[in-house]
Design brief:
It is built from four helices and twelve strands, in the order H-E-E-E-E-E-H-E-H-H-E-E-E-E-E-E. It has about 160 residues and is α+β, with helices and mostly antiparallel strands. InterPro entries: Flavin_Rdtase-like_dom, NADH-dep_flavin_reductase, Split_barrel_FMN-bd.
Length: about 160
């Protein structure tokens, strides 16, 4: 087994929230499904988003300079698949569910658990991916009771509190 395969197998054991990352601007409206999103700092509020440089939408995100991280609810498993489907045209993806915009103009999923509207402040190239450092401009939080995570190569709903 190669180190790369072993790494991928081990990373499958690291559960992650599933998000649809969107952009809109001079380069057009695009989106993709991601689990490689995390907090960097709260002063100023900053996230990082990792995106494969071979993605059909990569250059569009760079040129637009904005994005929105839409954290998916447990009922969004099909939507995750829509935005992960490389054979769909960009405009077809946004026909699913309801979308709004906030400060940046990037599409905001109306039914997301939370949405982080961001400016791409910096970008570093690491291996096959770009790491976007995203300064949060606005946040929308909903009352969705359950989130969607990806763990062990499968989707799982989360949201029940553990009682002490």
């Amino acid at each position: 087994m190669t180190l790369q395969t072993e790494f991928r197998n081990a990373m499958a054991q690291l559960g992650s929230a599933v998000s649809v990352i969107t952009t809109d601007g001079p380069a057009g409206k695009f989106g993709f499904t991601a689990s490689a999103v995390c907090s960097v700092t709260d002063q100023p509020p900053t996230l990082l988003v990792c995106m494969n440089r071979n993605s059909y939408a990569h250059e569009h995100f760079r040129r637009n300079g904005v994005l929105c991280v839409n954290v998916l609810s447990s009922h969004h498993q099909a939507l995750s698949g829509v935005f992960a489907n490389a054979s769909l045209r960009s405009e077809e993806r946004f026909l699913h569910d309801s979308w709004q915009v906030m400060n940046s103009g990037a599409p905001v999923l109306s039914s997301s658990v939370a949405s982080f509207d961001c400016l791409i402040a910096d970008c570093h190239e690491v291996g096959s991916h770009s790491v976007f450092y995203c300064q949060v401009q606005a946040i929308r939080i909903s009352e969705q009771p359950r989130g969607l995570v990806y763990f062990n190569r499968r989707y799982h709903a989360v949201g029940h509190d553990i009682e002490a």
